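Data availability (excerpt). The following record was deposited with the supplementary files.
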Amino acid sequence: MIAIGAITELGGWLHGTIGMFMFIAEEATQSLGMACYIAHMAGDDEKARELAQYGITNLCDPMIGFCGNWGYLAYPLQEAYESFFQASKLNFQVYLNLP
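Predicted structure:
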């Protein structure tokens, strides 16, 4: 019985830890999306593109991979977070295509 309790406790810890990790990455991605928007609205499309590329390279792509590889440990959160990072990548690509 002790082993079952320890496994259950570990499962809960993994679920919570991975869920929190994905949440913090999601918050960072949202903040960066706002920075892209502010740069664009201020007329600095070069900065918006730079930030968007950073978001794709350092947040979206790694987190899409993380969700696919490890997110199942926080099921069903990974499905929502993976969709979020895919949508954010599309949003960042809009900034990359600014004239």
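Summary of structural features: The CA atoms of residues 50 and 96 lie 8 Å apart.
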